[in-house]
Design goal:
Blueprint (H helix, E strand, L loop, with lengths): L1 H22 L7 E9 L4 E9 L6 E3 L2 E5 L3 E6 L3 E2 L5 E8 L7 E6 L13 E3 L3 E5 L4 E2 L3 E9 L4 H20 L7
Antiparallel strand pairs: 1-2, 1-7, 3-4, 4-5, 5-12, 6-11, 7-10, 8-12, 9-10
Helix pairs in contact: 1-2
């Protein structure tokens, strides 16, 4: 009886780890905040608030749709657009609830259509992504995509957690209530 209980407990623990690991892959299901920053990176021109990332557009700023998926930020608007000069003209996206794994990289996706928007215009730290369009213009429909990479626990970390859970399960199985033989 104890062996089957231990096996069941181990399977439940592995299942919970698998589900929790999948839920923390990126933006999806997490609360993200966004601000429009102009004319420098420290000045909030428009606070956009917070939104839970899922289906649909999370934010809109000056007619530009800001849509987040699990590992991408897509910014789009039909028609011509011109971003004013300054030192910064764009958006800051950040983890509003401290639930995201650390951001480890950002790159401009090849689907981006605005000329001059390259990797030098995106930056990040563990909890923030900054997207800077200062001095850019496009006569066509505006479409920019930024790919975001997140930290993923290493296999050794998962193995160590599973081994620890196994030891806890084994100790619980060996433990018997007082008065029983």
């Amino acid at each position: 009886m104890n062996a089957s209980r231990t096996r069941l407990g181990g399977l439940v623990a592995v299942g919970m780890l698998a589900v929790s690991g999948a839920a923390q892959a990126g933006f999806d299901g997490n609360t993200i905040s966004a601000d429009y920053l102009y004319s420098d990176i420290g000045t909030v021109y428009q606070a956009l608030g917070s939104a839970v990332v899922g289906a649909g557009v999370e934010f809109s700023s000056f007619g530009i749709s800001l849509d987040l998926s699990d590992t991408q930020i897509t910014m789009s608007r039909p028609g011509e657009i011109t971003f004013l000069p300054g030192t910064f003209n764009g958006w800051r996206f950040y983890d509003a609830t401290d639930n995201l794994p650390a951001i480890t990289g950002v790159t401009v996706n090849g689907a981006t259509t605005i000329s001059g928007f390259d990797n030098s215009r995106v930056s990040f730290d563990a909890d923030h992504v900054w997207v800077n369009f200062v001095d850019l213009a496009d006569a066509n429909d505006f479409y920019a995509v930024v790919d975001v990479a997140f930290a993923v626990p290493e296999p050794a970390t998962w193995a160590m957690m599973l081994a620890g859970l196994g030891m806890v399960g084994a100790l619980a199985a060996r433990r018997r209530p007082a008065g029983r033989t």
